[in-house]
Amino acid sequence: MGKLIVEGPVRLTGSVRVSGSKNSALPILAAALLCDERVVLENVPNLMDIHTMIEILSAAGCRVFFENGVAIIDPPTNPCTDIPYELVRKMRASFNVLGPLAAKFQKASVSLPGGCSIGVRPVDYHLEGLQKLGFSIKIEHGIVTAEMEKKIDEAIISLPFPSVGATEHIMTTAAILDGTHTVIENAAMEPEIEDLAIFLNRAGCRVLGAGTKRIEVFGVKKAHGCIHKIIPDRIEAGTYIIAIAATMGDAIVEGLDVSHLISLFDVLKNSGVSLSQLDRDKVRVSMDRRPDPIKIQVTPYPGFPTDLQPQIIVFLSKAQGTSTVIETVFKSRFQHVDELRRFGAKIEVSDGTAIVYGVERLSGAQVSATDLRAAAALVIAGLIANGTTSVNEVDQIFRGYEDIVQKLSNLSAVIEYQK
Ligand code: UD1
Questions:
Q1: Are strands 154-158 and 181-185 parallel, antiparallel or unpaired?
Q2: How far is 249 from 111, CA to CA, in rounded Å?
Q3: Most CB atoms closer than 10 Å: which of 158, 190, 348, 379?
Q4: CB under 8 Å to 344, separation ≥6 — which residues?
């Protein structure tokens, strides 16, 4: 495992371009399994998680070519519907190939996703959804097998919580269940769900209502090929915006979709950050003082995203007063807080809520990244802290941030990756 050495404090200036969305590309790659013809995806970020999904598609028998942000996926001539544990354990999103494979080839087996560093992440909604779509589910030796049991005319699936992964999994599986009308109630509304629906519809499927709480899928016989461009990564964009604001910098973030980041913009404006939209996909971020304290509730989209919660806590750690961050998506996602205390941050956590007592300065420290977004948060802490910070066990940052060292260096950060 490598480490990132960060020298601080620094003021970020210049500009940074956002890559394609990891969380959009992953379910779309999984959905490409449905297609009988070539799929071409553009703006695919070059990330570890994307390579894992490509390995899974290859294990399923697809021929995949990935270069310069373009992924070309040809359907399998000799399909394999048993996806091995070594691939699934690397990334939870790989579980989402179970339904598409079972819908297309009648039966598929995928290992249960392993434990997760941001808290308990069961797959019960996924499995209940697949059962309602007519699949039998068997779990043996840690492997889930889904097998088409009976054709269903209408499936009404009401999610207990608007799970992003379950919404995507059910939507994709239902897309080629010919003659089945599926309704997903209390669906997740994230932009990545809309992007997946656009992809599916381009491939000849019929998905309506994505981006709202009620999604309808009219199953078609087959999905054909298509060309699709992945949306910008709102979490990567948000991370750079927070980093610029936290360092009291003045810089431009381009290539983003501003409409996907309204909740973040509201929070930052309320704490004193100046955000001016220069174009549809370009924003200037500047901050000239310590932030005002704020109260944030982390909720499903369009609320404040859980994937920016660790980063915003770093930003608030130097606020002029006490802030509150209530996490409702992954209630125990606060592992980064222990590490932030090493910088001198004053944060208390209890019962899904972090109380952040703003301090005047942080000091560089040796810390360890516990998960992907925690790693990003610790790097931001290193940028605003006095002295040298070493973010150890940092490699998971490359699961979600394309060229992060180069992008931060271009923003005038002093940062180096060491093996
Ligand atoms: C996706 C994102 C992840 C983000 C999360 C929440 C991808 C690849 N990952 O993860 O970056 O942090 O959305 O925005 O897109 N739950 C259950 N049972 C289930 C499924 C979920 O109880 O079967 C619970 C989870 O434990 C969690 C909540 O639902 O408390 C939300 O999880 P979910 O939206 O499913 O997250 P992911 O899709 O795994």
A1: parallel
A2: 45
A3: 379
A4: 359, 361, 362, 363, 365, 385
Cα(305)–Cα(233) distance, integer angstroms: 13
Ligand 1 pocket mutation pick from 50, 88, 164 by most atoms within 8 angstroms of CB? 164
> What are 339-381's pLDDT values in tens digits?
999 999 999 999 999 999 999 999 999 999 999 999 999 999 9
Task: Using most ligand atoms within 8 A of CB, pick from 116, 161, 301 the residue to mutate for ligand 1.
Answer: 161
User: Is 226 considered catalytic here?
Assistant: no
Point out the catalytic residue in the list 35, 62, 116, 205: 116
Write down the pTM of the prediction: 0.97
Q: Is 165 in the pocket of ligand 1 (CB under 6 A)?
A: yes
Structural domain spans, the chain: 3-18+232-418, 22-229
Q: Is 409 helix (H, G, I), strand (E, B) or coil?
A: helix
Q: Which CATH class, in words, describes the domain spanning 3-18+232-418?
A: alpha beta
pLDDT for 226 equals 98
User: Hey, whose CA ends up nearest to atom 5 of ligand 1?
Assistant: 164
Q: Do 3-18+232-418 and 22-229 come out as alike in CATH topology?
A: yes
Question: Does the Cβ of 124 fall within 6 Å of ligand 1?
Answer: yes
